[in-house]
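=== RUN LOG ===
request id: a7f3
mode: sequence -> structure
chains: 1
length: 201
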Amino acid sequence: MNIDAAFERLHAERPAAETIKCVCVYGGASGGAWEGYEAAAGALGRVIGEAGLGLVYGGGQTGMMGAVADGALGAGAKVIGVIPEFLDRVEVGHRAVTDLRLVPDMHTRKRMMFDLAQAIVAMPGGFGTLEEVFEVITWKQLGRHTKPIVFLDTEQGYWQPLMDLIDHVEAQGFLHSRLNNLYTSIRNPEDLPAAFAAQLG
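=== RESULT ===
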């Protein structure tokens, strides 16, 4: 069996799509070099709340994480923060969220966030954000889930260099049987519901 046939078989066995009730959002504990990043994170949280959805995120109160949580809380959303105990002492968990869960390690945090949500958004962030979103894209490529994955790219084009790298990886033959529906990218938080619908359709 060649690699393309193997991927087709994996995707034939993938779980059915779930109704979106809660969105998992990854993002930096800092706000980045451009002030618009945090504003976009706050707008994303507001859009999630106004759509009647819940938010699960990394539990911090600073930077992109704090901004998306505050935006969602302001729009009346249920917000679940998941933070390892050692990071709670460094990043400081957001005590105003609906449900702050302290967990023993990063692996537990990532699994819990994934299990609680039916869709995923990656905001600008650092190594942690990159690692989290690549993991869920890999799981989707392997047919382990069908959850929509969306990059919030903002007008600053934060994720464009990554998209260029992925195109290079594909051109070099290391993305076999790449599916166009693994993820999508949006500039404006207001486009999130349509991006979810397009992936589920």
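=== NOTES ===
The beta strands are 22-26, 54-57, 79-84, 99-103, 119-122, 149-152, 184-186.
The chain is about 45% helix and 15% strand.
=== END ===
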